[in-house]
């Protein structure tokens, strides 16, 4: 079944197939089954009790799949899934930021194909296609093997734990300061919103009105009059 599905793909000269979620809703059933199969293999290899990558989850967001085929273009050696996610991230200064950002969501090479440079080839292909550096991309719940890979190939190892279990390396904040000042997709950060900062907006000063047009004025005080002259007594 896998070979039949792979034949329906159109790899480039580097044996990569790039699938964008917005263009993949009408893929052939064989290709849909292939995505489900490799996604299941990835989850099993990571010891997870749930599937990260399936066809439905792939087309359900702004995602991209990078599939690497063998030299004969008959088998899948591995894949990467990236996509944009809305995240709340803490920096080292204790500020929290909300941003929509490209994330590494799944990264898998079949065990029989590991330690042959395929993982680095896939990462390099993704970075070239997305015009990014690895330090700019948060990783969703990376395995120890993935963290070791990032340290060995990109020198990325220091990070502050996030409550959402994404790993954001310290170098991310070094390259993103300008993006926080001016929203720009070129720097991988969209709509940055600093959160949990003091509210410095002054409250409007409230003053009582000088007069109330709906308030009735008090009646004049009654005076005693002379019953003969009808003038006030002196």
Describe the structure.
Residues 210-234 are annotated as: Disordered. The protein is α+β, with helices and mostly antiparallel strands. The chain has one domain (1-180): 3-Layer(aba) Sandwich (Aminopeptidase). The chain has helices spanning 2-6, 29-45, 55-59, 118-130, 144-154, 170-181; strands at 16-20, 63-69, 76-90, 96-109, 139-140, 166-167, 189-195. The strands form two sheets. A five-stranded antiparallel β-sheet has the order 1-2-3-4-7, sandwiched between helices. The protein has a two-stranded antiparallel ribbon with strand order 5-6. The protein starts with a helix and ends in a 39-residue tail after the last strand. The model is unreliable at 177-187 and 196-220 (pLDDT under 50).
